[in-house]
Specification:
Length: 245
C-alpha cells in the first residue's frame, strides 16, 4: 500500500462517477451496464466490460475501491500504468465471461429438466419473466431449481470484484510474504496463504450454494477473475508481454 497511482486514481474516479449517477442522481443505468444473462432482453455484449463500473451499494463500492487501492497500487508501481490497466481489464472481462459460462451451463441444465417434465418453451419463458408457474410441477422438480433458473435469468452481475480478485492473485504471487488480515480475523496472515483460502471459500460457496459472506455474491466471477489473474501471471513470469511496461 502507498500513494495513489495514476491508473488506480482514474479507475476509482470512474467507479465513483457511475455509482453516483445511479445511486445519488437516480439514473437507471443497471439495465444498460450491468451484466445480464445472454438470453435476457437487457443483455448487451458491452456489459462484459461495463458491469465492472456498477456497484450494488455503498459498502460494495467501498470495499472494492479500498482493495483496488491497497493491492493494485504496488502492482502499478512495479509494472507501470499500461501493463496494470491491461491486466485489470483482462481479469475483469475474463471473470464476466467465466461467470456467464457457468450460469449458461446451470441454466441449460434446469431448462432441459423443465422440457423433460412436459413444459413448453412458452411456459418456461413465462416462468422466467414473471416467476409464476403451475404448482403441480413441484411434484417433478424442486422449488429451489425453479428459483435458481429465475434468478440466473433476471439477476445481473455488478461490480469490479472479478478484476480485483485477479489483482489479489497477482499481489499474492508478487508479494507472497506480505501480511494481510481479515476484518473478522485480525491476525496477520501471509498473502501466499490468505489469498488461496479466500478464493477457496468463494469456490466452495459457488459450488455448494452456501454463501459464507452473505447472499447476492457472484462467486464464480470472483473465481473467474482469480483464475485469469493466475494464468496471466504464470505467463508473464516467462518474460512475455514486456512491451506493456
Amino acid at each position: 500500500m502507498g500513494r495513489l497511482t495514476e491508473a488506480i486514481k482514474h479507475l476509482i474516479i470512474l467507479n465513483v462517477i457511475f455509482f453516483a449517477a445511479s445511486s445519488v442522481l437516480g439514473l437507471n443505468l443497471g439495465n444498460w451496464l450491468a451484466l445480464y444473462f445472454p438470453k435476457n432482453e437487457h443483455f448487451g455484449v458491452w456489459q462484459i466490460v461495463t458491469h465492472m463500473f456498477m456497484h450494488g451499494g455503498f459498502m460494495h463500492i467501498l470495499f472494492n475501491m479500498y482493495a483496488l487501492w491497497a493491492f493494485g497500487s504496488p502492482l502499478e508501481q512495479m509494472w507501470g500504468r499500461n501493463k496494470f490497466i491491461f491486466f485489470y481489464f483482462s481479469a475483469g472481462i475474463g471473470a464476466g465471461l467465466i461467470y456467464t459460462a457457468v450460469n449458461y451451463f446451470q441454466f441449460n441444465g434446469i431448462y432441459q429438466d423443465l422440457i423433460s417434465i412436459g413444459l413448453q418453451p412458452a411456459e418456461i419463458q413465462s416462468l422466467l419473466e414473471t416467476g409464476r408457474y403451475n404448482s403441480g410441477i413441484l411434484n417433478q422438480i424442486s422449488e429451489s431449481r425453479l428459483a435458481d433458473i429465475y434468478q440466473i435469468y433476471n439477476t445481473p452481475a455488478v461490480g469490479a470484484s472479478g478484476a480485483i480478485y485477479g489483482v489479489l492473485v497477482a499481489f499474492g504471487m508478487s508479494f507472497p510474504n506480505a501480511k494481510l488480515a481479515l476484518i473478522f480475523l485480525p491476525v496477520p496472515i501471509s498473502a501466499k496463504y490468505f489469498i488461496p483460502v479466500l478464493i477457496g471459500l468463494d469456490l466452495f460457496s459457488g459450488v455448494t450454494g452456501f454463501s459464507i459472506f452473505g447472499g447476492g455474491i457472484a462467486h464464480f466471477a470472483h473465481v473467474g477473475g482469480a483464475l485469469i489473474g493466475f494464468i496471466m501471471m504464470k505467463y508473464w513470469q516467462k518474460n512475455q508481454f514486456q512491451r506493456w511496461n
